Amino acid sequence: MTSTVTLAEQQLKDAVRKAALEAMAAGELPEAELPPVAVEIPGDRAHGDLASNIAMLSARAFHKAPRQIADILLSHLSLGGTYLERAETAGPGFLNFFLSPAFYAAAVAEILEQKDQYGRSDYGAGKKVMVEFVSANPTGPMHMGNARGGALGDCLAAVLDAAGYDVWREFYVNDAGNQIEKFGYSLEARYLQIYRGEDAVPFPEDGYQGEDIKDRAREFASLHGDAFVEADSQARRDALTAYALPKNIAKMKEDLTKYRITYNQWFLESSLHEDGEVQESIDLLRQRGMTYEKDGALWYRATQFGAEKDEVLIRQNGNPTYFAADIAYHRNKLEKRHFDRCIDIWGADHHGHVARMKGALDAIGLDGSKLDVILMQLVRLTRDGEVVRMSKRTGKAIQLGDLLDEVPVDAARFLFTLREANSQMDFDLDLAVQQDAQNPVYYVQYARARICSIFKALAKEGVSPRACTDEELALLQTPAERELIRHLSDYPGEIIQAAKEYDPSRVLRYVLAAATLFHKFYDSCRVKGEDEALMAARMALCTATSRVICNVLKMFKITAPESM
Predict the structure, then answer these.
(1) 3-state DSSP call for residue 222?
(2) Do residues 51 and 41 make contact, with C-beta atoms less than 8 angstroms apart?
(3) Which residue, among 143, 420, 153, has the nearest Cα to 263 in the 3D structure?
């Protein structure tokens, strides 16, 4: 369905093209091909609601000054039957257009008619897109980077879905390779230390030092006692890993579910080894002449595809590297499961891996441009203006689970998504729990609750929202009303732009502005009034505003309370 804004923009383009043809027919402009008519929104709406620089773009074709062309076009413009009330020329040759009352009426009616579908579009044409996010190492608990990545990834997936893509959310579980071996050695040392003492059992230099490793070893000991103390080392590590890894993955799922994140699939790296896909991918690179042997290892010629150095695929010990598995995983996404586009959200420290991964896909015969990587900057937790590193409750490094025990999920999802991924952010723990206008999520939720309270107060007086005619909705003519309606009408376009830019933060900035404009409208326009038709129209505008706010919050899995 074409939105009211899109229709108005199309009407503008058609009117300009028709005016140009009439001017050529009248001999006021020479016969020439008119460039595509561009439409933009002026920085200052006092200069118009929509504008076009077509006069500047066509100066070469018409061999005239842009302002002269603009004046000629204006003299032939016919805006009857459109959502455009009038036009004027400005500056060096801009054509500025002003929207009619019919536009504002139609924009409100569109929201009321489409309800929870308002803002959704078929822009993505059903293309299959995978968003892979968080994918935290299962050898330990999730941290603040995972908290930010979780919110950004889930909300980006929601935006893409609203924009008409077929979206798949995935968590890649690194349950194979070096880190799992290190996990096993770390667990083994902690288990043996329980029975032999810490001094008697050295801890691996590169082992995982976290308290969670000790916890898992103690849990294992409580189940099996000292049965594995004298066991073969490999068997002991395998048993410990087989116990601890599923526990860690289950805790991840539990924390992410609490965070309102669910995935279509938790994809196991180990499956790529078991199914032979890692070896397949290595063999493909071999066949394409992209490998060589050196120092007993198999190398990939990464430098031929833009990387700074070549990469090892198979180590001297015969084990594939993580990079080899990563190539197989992305090949699985694009070739085996036929995703049109893959979006990965990685920490900014992985920036050097982007070109390597895209180049490897090209090297293997796939299209590396189908992989998009969003690099996410670090998060600092602050309280009272000071950086916080330890949990008050546990006295340990703050984990995702600790954060969600202290901060409402609504606030966490909103605040982590409010900043663009490529910007560093401070997450203010005090702000996240504040219940006032300083807290962005509270501010937006309060706007919706305020609308509900207006309707409750009117209901006590026997007044309820009702359907309005176009003529009644056209009564919404004050600057505050028009500014709010214009903003609400921009919502479908905001979703599409956020999808294009992979930036869900712009949708939250949009809804914050919507809340501000509603409060401004409420302060300057009395909803209850003596004119029943105007009162009904203003109630309709309140309903439309509530609908847009709810659509944004629901999309991002943030609650929209009716009272606060």
Answers:
(1) helix
(2) yes
(3) 153
